[in-house]
Amino acid sequence: MPALRMPWAPRLLLTNRTFRLPVQTSGTEPDPDLGPFQILDRRWSAPDSAFFYYLQAPSQSGDYVLRAAKDGRKTQLTIQVRTLDQLRQPFRYNDADWPRRWPINQPWHSTKTAQTLQDLPIRQRGDAETLNWWLEQDDRTVWRQLPPAEFPRAHYVNVHQGCPNCGTAIFAHHGFYPWTRNYLPADLRSECPSCGAVYPDNDLAGGDFTSGDFVDDGFGYFDDQGHVFLFAASYHREQIDRFSIPIDQLTNLLRRDHFDPETARRLGLLLLRYAVETVYLAAAPQFRHGPSQEEEKAWDWGQPDWASANDPIAILYRKGILRYSIDVPSVGASLALAYDTIWPFLREDRELPDRARAMGLHLERPADVVSLIEEMLASQLQCCLDGGGLSNMPRVSEGVLTMLRGLDRPDAGDVLDWLYDRGPEKLRGFTANNFFPDGTPPEATGGYNDIHSQGLFALEYQLRRLRLRHPEAYPESRFPSLLDRSRARRILRAPHEVILLGRVPFHFGDGGSAGVQTPLQEDARLPPLPVETLRLAEEYLDDPEIADLRREVEEETYHHIDSSLLDGAGFAILRTGETPERAAAGIVYGDAPYHRHMDLFDVQLYAFGRPFLSDLGYPQSWASVHYWEGHWATHNSVWSVVPEQSPLELPFDTPYPFLKQIAGRGRLVRTLFLDRLQVVEIEAERWAWDMEQQRWHRPGVHFRRLLGLVETDGEGVALIDLARVTGGAEHWRVCRGLEGDFIPHQIEQTSLPGTVAGPDIERGQLNRLAHPDHAGLACMDQVARLQTSAAWSGTWHSHHDPSAHLDLHLLRAPANAETLTARATAVMGSPDQSRYTYRALLWRHRPTEPEMISCFDQVFEPRLGEATLAAVEALPTEDGLTASGIRLQTRTGREISLYWNPQSPTDGPIRFADGTELSGGLVATLDGELASTGAETVHLAGRSHRFPSARQTGTITALDRDACTVELSGLSDIAVGDRVCVRSSGRSYRITAVSSHPSGRHRLTLDLSSVLGRARIAALRGTECELDFFLITRTGYLHDTRLERELDGSWQPIIAAMNPDMDRSVVQLENPLEEAQEGDWVRAVAYVVGDQLLFEPLCRDAV
Fold it and tell me: What is the overall mean pLDDT for the chain?
């Protein structure tokens, strides 16, 4: 006989609240005995074999038993119904204290004696029409605008099937949030912008849970195939988000204009409405937002009761509260400012309690209003302390400090201890551990980076203001400044150095997108940092260079930037010499833990005010990022497939976000910076994570790449791009090129079925791949094979501008490599629904020997109108597998030659077809001059050039980490602007000052700190050292560095490092660290006394 059961119900519920009760059975309806719960609606769901009852809880608190019976079978459960006042009182459940409101298990008492946040800047005016709507409504309409917490929330309606009527056509309008909605007032309807269909059929806002063919009762509409469309849940989430808009607008209005009592009451009513749901969820976490999802997912009958879990506090991690986790800190700060703005009025106003009672609240006095709002802020704060409010760094700390300041608490030392030592940012090591030494955050460029860089100074501001208000409670000796001077200056400069053409950031990871390659706006100047941030930095650091940066932003002038080498994040950006530059090319060779793509060695090229080579940036959907926007196949890069190495598959809401989109890590080898020619050489390795053994390892794939940005004639530029791949079973060179059509010159093409992943694999078919690495290739269709010779050329023609073209000159590829072209479009929906269409070029080479090197030599010329290159010629070598020579001739007769020998100089000289010989390194000739780095002898045009000091090695004899200085012996002819490289770790440094000693030693000031991270020792197990802070260890970042004890400078080499979670690091040392104890502060450093530095000076001679 089929079971009769109630598979879900709320355990703890606020009086008068509505919920859905499922009763699973078969056939006829059971006999429900629901006590004082009112049945509002009911329906039968055949797919679930259940009757759904839509119930309203009684107005009286109590423990109520709900029963159902049928054919002699019975089922029952108990629901605890409580008033809001009851839920505000401390209680125990499942060995945990509730409500989750700071301070835990304590009655609330206010300590606020003054307004404390009115120093914060006043925001710009919002939309006047929206503001007026909120001011004109009656209290009950305003109250209803915030959905009750029992309704589930979701981010997306459906990111796979799209619209029930027109399908994926909707994605042409947007990937994440394409639906059109009316929010004022809320009607819970969603209109498809493509076909105009409106969902759901039932009037959920009016209490109709069951009418029509397309029914969504709050938990989604299900089509005949079982696909779920979360119309109501995603609407509810957005409606809750939008409730913050009038709170911010009214706050700004009251701060900016004259104080109006009725406006203040309206703001107070909004705060009380938000407080009801927040305080409720502090006691009943079952109805919190829950984990964010990358795609639509149905609930298992209803929301999980998090408080009943084995560890009810730990499970609140990233669950948010009324809004989802990322929003919690910033919403808390916004609510705190709103409260602080009207606090003097709330203390005295007797009308607001009366109006609140009409909304069902038991508030008698102004002090009751103040207390409920403050408890809301304390619940938001505790959500952060419990890990439920987890956001982009350092928003949690900034939000918590703002809430503490708004509450005016002199007794929150435990909260500051948490921020400094246990919170997500762990402020005691934040600047060292959450910024690379070059000043870049470990994040995607653009908005994500800005949160870190701007947040550091905003956070310092909040700390100083809190300390100023309560100096004895929060002394600097206990809670020190966050501003490490050397690193803070780099943090300010880095945002300037990643901007291209003064208008767009170099794209890295989920940063801003240039997927659609339209021209950049002429007036779209991109300020590297807000002037407010620079003013704070100028005040705190007292640095005249920062004052110059601030003036440039205020005056809207451009900051001059030479070619940038950010050897922490791992960017090399080559630029022409103007301010701002007219053209720039960049390459990614580093790695970072967050919002990453598999974009190792991705190359981007901007010229003539537009992108010619770019990445896809921010994904169209989180459901697609791992196999499209973030996949190696969509980047202008190289790759090698290793048969036994598959991409790491992790759930979206993983506690290990630092393990996503893994590719590898590289290092700077050498540079050659001349007038009108900028060259960079980089090498890299694939890295992978072994989940079973919990370690980083190298799967045996090596890459090498040389980029040269050449200024040709007039405004013209060309990009030399030489790539090498070794190791693995399939070597790939991929280039999407310019968004448009690619036309090869005098090359036959043969159409192929299927996709690049295989002739029998359809577009988007990911379940039949020969290797998981082919996922992105399975989304490239309309494949053609090019019947290419050794050297050939072709042109991309822009879809957006008929004058824009990108010429490709292929000079070298493996003899048996397959050359393909394929259509590359956004993967949500059909190709004709994509906002962009590329014709990608791909080379696939299957090496026949393990050590076989695949060489791909190319020259690109971006242009508007005619080409400036008259000839592009390869200069092959007589011997040597990897060396290359290239000669360019412009239409005005200029010649530029480049000779590259990436092989070891001990392998002997390499001879090129024109007779040139060199032993290792790099040589360029242009405008009658020869320039080289790393080459001791060059034989050119019948003449030998000798540079005996071309490769030097020095030894560090002393250092000062705080001053970024080293003393060393063994180097000569070293000057400001030169670069040195640490032999052991491969890290590169620019020299900013040099002083020489009569003994032949030099004292060098380096541009970057040598400290890669710092922490306390949590545990020692022989050569294994567990650290209590999260240091970046991804893809071998700390391998071959040193762990140094701060107390005495003793150190050991780090041979391996990893993060077991978001809070800790584990390093494996070569030998135990002498005399080290738990609690000692240690730091990972790039070099120590005795390490060797490599130096390759720029050598010049006349041709």
Answer: 95
